[in-house]
């Protein structure tokens, strides 16, 4: 009799069930776990291939925020079940929004990318804008080498083209990316007079703004500008080039050197495209 009373008392002490709570909770746990695994693995990669302080901070924050609400939820539900459920719904909606938009990002970037422009359709004397990336000592890392190989291929096919190689010096780099890029192209046989180095930019927006200033300073505003970068980078470049006043520019893509680097680059690129939507 006492056991029956104890069980009845325990049932009365439990918070009431809320309609749809189980579905929302399961969805939230699945989405949160996927997001955590994505960004925690990205964080671990930073210790092998460091990309600076900002990506590391981003990975830590998103990893923590993806699981913390789910860990807090059971305790909050005991005190204020209705408020806990509302917060869980908000969290799940945000997590779902992230995953859906990430899939759209994959579709746009990886599964069905826009085809490269035709080199034969470029104007005479067009400018190739080659975007920088990480360097290792005095040599480009593999992703940047792929971009430069693509640029060299285009410039060999069209001797009238010139290029701007753009990239500043990162905290863990011993010389500006622009200088490394210029030296690499010269070693590939591209004449030095066809290469203009921009060595101050620290991000894609600065790559474009600084290169535009160089084009204006050199009186080359009437020339067509085309862009060269890794395939995952192209959609954001097109958006930023339109914002900078270049309009729809022809682009040429380079392959990612490894599947692993592509996966993590897609995560980073998604966050960069999200910043654009928020006005950054």
Annotation keywords:
single chain, 280 residues, alpha/beta, five-stranded parallel sheet, two-stranded antiparallel ribbon, elongated, disordered N terminus
Structural class: alpha/beta
Low-confidence blocks of residues: 1-12
Please report the number of helical segments: 9
Helix content: 55-70%
Oligomer classification: single chain
- What is the terminal-to-terminal distance? 67 Å
Report on the structure:
Helix 2 runs antiparallel to helix 3 (53-79) and helix 2 packs across helix 4. The chain has helices spanning 2-13, 21-48, 53-79, 81-111, 142-157, 177-187, 204-217, 234-243, 259-277, and strands spanning 127-131, 135-136, 139-140, 162-166, 195-198, 225-230, 251-254. Helix 8 (234-243) links the parallel strand 6 (225-230) and strand 7 (251-254). It is an alpha/beta fold and 280 residues long. 60% of the residues lie in helices and 10% in strands. The chain has 9 helices and 7 strands. The longest helix has 31 residues, at 81-111. The strands form 2 sheets. Strands 5-4-1-6-7 form a 5-stranded parallel beta sheet, with helices on both faces.
């Amino acid at each position: 009799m006492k056991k029956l009373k104890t069980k009845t008392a325990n049932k009365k002490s439990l918070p009431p069930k809320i309609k749809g709570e189980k579905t929302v909770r399961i969805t939230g746990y699945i989405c949160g776990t996927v997001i955590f695994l994505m960004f925690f693995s990205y964080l671990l990669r930073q210790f092998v291939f460091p990309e600076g302080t900002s990506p590391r901070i981003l990975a830590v924050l998103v990893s923590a925020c993806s699981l913390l609400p789910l860990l807090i939820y059971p305790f909050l539900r005991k005190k204020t079940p209705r408020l806990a459920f509302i917060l869980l719904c908000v969290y799940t909606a945000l997590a779902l929004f992230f995953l859906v938009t990430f899939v759209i990002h994959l579709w746009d970037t990886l599964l069905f990318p826009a085809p490269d422009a035709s080199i034969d359709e470029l104007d005479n004397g067009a400018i190739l804008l080659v975007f920088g990336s990480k360097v290792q000592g005095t040599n480009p890392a593999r992703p940047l080498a792929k971009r430069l190989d693509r640029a060299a291929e285009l410039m060999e096919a069209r001797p009238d083209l010139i290029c701007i190689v753009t990239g500043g010096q990162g905290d863990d780099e011993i010389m500006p990316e622009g200088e490394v890029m210029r030296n690499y192209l010269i070693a590939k046989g591209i004449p030095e007079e066809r290469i203009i180095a921009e060595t101050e930019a620290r991000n894609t927006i600065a790559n474009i703004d600084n290169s535009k200033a160089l084009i204006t300073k050199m009186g080359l505003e009437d020339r067509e500008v085309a862009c060269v970068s890794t395939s995952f980078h192209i959609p954001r470049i097109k958006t930023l080039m339109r914002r900078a006043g270049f309009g729809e520019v022809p682009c040429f893509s380079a392959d990612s050197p490894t599947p692993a680097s592509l996966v993590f680059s897609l995560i980073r690129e998604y966050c960069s495209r999200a910043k654009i939507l928020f006005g950054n």
